[in-house]
Write a structure and sequence with these properties.
Number of helices: 12
Radius of gyration: 27 Å
Low-confidence stretches: 1-17
Strand content: under 5%
Number of strands: 0
Distance between the termini: 96 Å
Shape: elongated
Helix content: over 70%
Order of helices and strands: HHHHHHHHHHHH
Length: 239
């Protein structure tokens, strides 16, 4: 038998020709070759063929996950998000469930903007999915990175809240600034926002003549951050 190995047709020489695309094993192997060769569009097409031609084979399930992975490799994160979610819905007890949950969270994470002044609507989805991994699969090898990325995402939301609060504060719209700084203090603890938030709460509350609230938070600021520049700034307005 003569094997014709045209480079335009086969990414790894004759090996693709020797595969039998009429079997699930062979068809999947061919798709894998395109995948490994970073011929991602063709790999997705071939994996999809495996799903369609052999829907009851375990290779169809493998192909579903492989498609999600290919989207992730080529940084098509919106597409990988959909593909991982679909796999999770169809195969909730799959052996790779923790991996799928992690990649689903990371697909959301990788769609987040580089700067906080842009839309962060996907941040809550990121946090939700990474938290699901941490809770459901506490012994997973992906938990450590999931915790790191979740914290980074929460901090982004805190920075967004701080950005908005600062916007109001600088323009002396103290009632709006007060609400934002209170939210920053209450909802984003342990991320480094406390000193500034407490100080600005005191100042904003005092500016709108809410002395009881100013005094309440001044006590916390004095107890937690005595001698800080933030404490001194708040102290000035309380005199």
């Amino acid at each position: 038998m003569t094997l014709i190995c045209a480079s335009s047709l086969f990414i790894t020489g004759c090996s693709s020709v020797e595969r039998n695309s009429n079997t699930p094993e062979g068809a999947f192997a061919i798709a894998e070759e395109f995948d490994k060769g970073e011929r991602f569009e063709e790999a997705i097409r071939r994996y999809t063929e495996v799903k369609n031609k052999f829907p009851y084979s375990n290779f169809a399930t493998k192909a579903e996950l492989a498609i999600a992975d290919v989207y992730y490799k080529q940084e098509s994160y919106a597409e990988s998000q959909v593909a991982y979610q679909m796999f999770k819905d169809l195969h909730p007890t799959a052996p790779q469930a923790d991996y799928v949950q992690f990649r689903l969270g990371m697909s959301y994470y990788n769609q987040l903007p580089a700067t906080i002044d842009r839309d962060l609507s996907l941040a809550n989805d990121t946090i939700l999915n990474l938290t699901d991994l941490i809770k459901k699969y506490p012994n997973s090898q992906y938990v450590a990175e999931a915790k790191e990325k979740r914290t980074a995402t929460v901090k982004m939301l805190g920075e967004k809240e701080e950005y908005i609060a600062d916007f109001y504060f600088k323009r002396e719209i103290y009632d709006s600034a007060l609400g934002r700084y209170e939210g920053l203090y209450k909802n984003f603890g342990g991320l480094g926002f406390e000193k500034k938030a407490l100080s600005r709460i005191v100042i904003s509350a005092k500016k709108i003549d809410d002395t009881p609230k100013a005094e309440k938070y001044m006590k916390i600021l004095a107890a937690d951050f005595p001698g800080s520049s933030e404490f001194k700034a708040a102290e000035k307005v309380m005199k």
